[in-house]
Amino acid sequence: MKRIVLTADDYGLHPEVSRLIVGLLVDGLISSTTMIVSSPHARDAVSQYLASGADPARLRLHFNLTSPVEGPPWYPLATEHASLVGPDGAFHAHEPELEAKAESSEVIAELQAQFDWMETRGLKPAGIDVHRHIVYGLFGRGFLPEVLVFCSRRHLPFRLPKDPTLQFGHDFTTRHAAQLDAAVDAADTLQVPLPTVIASLPPGADREFTSYEEVLDRYLAILDAVPDDGVSEVFLHPIPSAQFGPQTHVWEARLLADPRFREALADFEVRPSWR
Predict the structure, then answer these.
(1) How many other C-beta atoms lie within 10 A of the C-beta of residue 235?
(2) What pLDDT is recorded for position 135?
(3) Parallel, antiparallel, or unpaired: how do β-strands 2-11 and 268-271 relate?
(4) Does the predicted TM-score (pTM) go above 0.90?
(5) What residue ranges define each of the domains in the chain, with the CATH number in brackets?
(6) Would the CA dihedral through 209, 212, 214, 216 be positive or negative?
């Protein structure tokens, strides 16, 4: 039987988004979620999670170093952060600018600060993953070695696919093969559990998909493509309405309760972690 983690990303993005996601978790429609603690709504999200009775072991840190492209800026939690911010003291909104300027020591200091923020509020992260694929090095310098050491010292799994093709395509695999292979080898040496593959809608999906049925078909194809070995992850970004993001994310919320999607999941062992 194939094994996957079914995750809703971006818990803490907004109180209404958090309410939707924790409801999906309590109802068993997802098996994990990931929290953005640099969001201005993070404190509210902690209260919602603790009040819901949801299992703390199903919550991971969604490590973030960027501000939203649209809307109010977000700010770092660490005191040493000069390389992570612009003149206004907020995170950069675009990944290339971040990766061109970020210093390794400040990236890890911010990761530690975000981890501590959750832990001191009674929500010790069950793992680490990254918002908008930061630290992978897709847009410039990456910080995978440093982040893997951080995870190893805390015995935490990390969202980095052993095989990136399903999520990023063959072009990524070709361009970043050596970097990825080194990171996967390092994770093995450091005993950091990784998912076999990860998969979600691609960037720009709101322009590619024009109907709910297209989104459903894509996720059914993703489930079909999940390999038999190891534990993989399918992650979505469900939101209650287009007020909070693209229509494709509204359709992802609908998808999770769709009998056709649930029927496809019956062939999987759905787990809270790829550990």
Answers:
(1) 24
(2) 93
(3) parallel
(4) yes
(5) 2-271 (3.20.20.370)
(6) positive
